[in-house]
Amino acid sequence: MMPVRVFHWRSLAAWLSAGLVLGLAARGPEAAPTDRLFRSVSPSADTIEVTMTDHAYEPSTLTLPAGEPVTLQFTNEGTVEHYFVVGSLVASDKEGFEQNLFEGVSIEKNKQPGGHADEEEGEHDEAEEGDHHENEFELPPGGRGSMTFTLPAAKAGTYTIACFETTGGRKHYEMGMEGTLRVTAPDDE
Predict the structure, then answer these.
(1) For residues 36 and 78, which has the higher predicted lDDT (pLDDT)?
(2) Per residue in 150-182, pLDDT tens?
(3) Beta-carbon contacts of residue 114 (< 8 Å; ≥ 6 apart)
(4) What is the pLDDT of residue 14?
(5) How far apart, in whole angstroms, are the C-alpha atoms of residue 71 and residue 124?
């Protein structure tokens, strides 16, 4: 009797994506923007693209599964620096949240140069970034980057996304740059 092979849907998706990328690459650079394909396809994590604009997140509502790796891929298309911060209960100083969604969660952050990123790189060193909230992700205008993490089932619930950057004396979240992030438990799906 011949053994039956069972493919996990993510493995199948990775194989199909790899075939698509190789096929498009063989057709030449004008066939498709392969850098976008590589950014969007990840066999080990769900990837969600988030665009920061003046003054909104697109999409403004995110749903993430607990217990699975997730990558949030950011692009700042705004004209000023923007933050992606997630939590609940805005702090009394209005500089962040009282409760941090990512507290105790390991996060891999990557930033790619773009816009004024080179200037910012010189201004902020690793020690200085460590003073910010763990869940804060900031990008200069034109910047791109990502956060990869796995949220435990204990983090299931609904949280607020906000930008605490200030322009003209007002916080961006007060100008509409806010949203909702829902973390689903494995049995909610």
Answers:
(1) 78
(2) 999 999 999 999 999 999 999 999 999 999 999
(3) 140, 142, 143, 144
(4) 45
(5) 23
- In single-letter form, the type of residue at position 176 comes to G
Which helix (H) or strand (E) is 88 found in, with range? Answer: strand 82-90
How far is it, in rounded angstroms, from Cα 181 to Cα 17? 27
In whole angstroms, give the CA distance from residue 76 to residue 85: 14
Angle made by CA atoms 80, 73, 106, in degrees to the nearest 5: 105
- Amino acid letter at 101? L
User: Counting beta carbons within 10 angstroms of the beta carbon of residue 138, is it exposed (0 to 12), middle (13 to 18) or buried (19 or more)?
Assistant: buried
% helix, strand, coil for the chain, step of 5: 25, 35, 40
Task: Please check the confidence at residue 41 and state whether its pLDDT lies above 50.
Answer: no
Q: What is the rounded distance in angstroms from the CA atom of residue 3 to the CA atom of residue 140?
A: 54
DSSP 8-state code for residue 107: E
Residue 64 token pair: 């993430």
pLDDT band, residue 187 (cuts 50/70/90):
confident
Instruction: Measure the CA–CA gap between 31 and 98, rounded to whole angstroms.
Output: 48
Q: What is the mean pLDDT of the chain?
A: 75
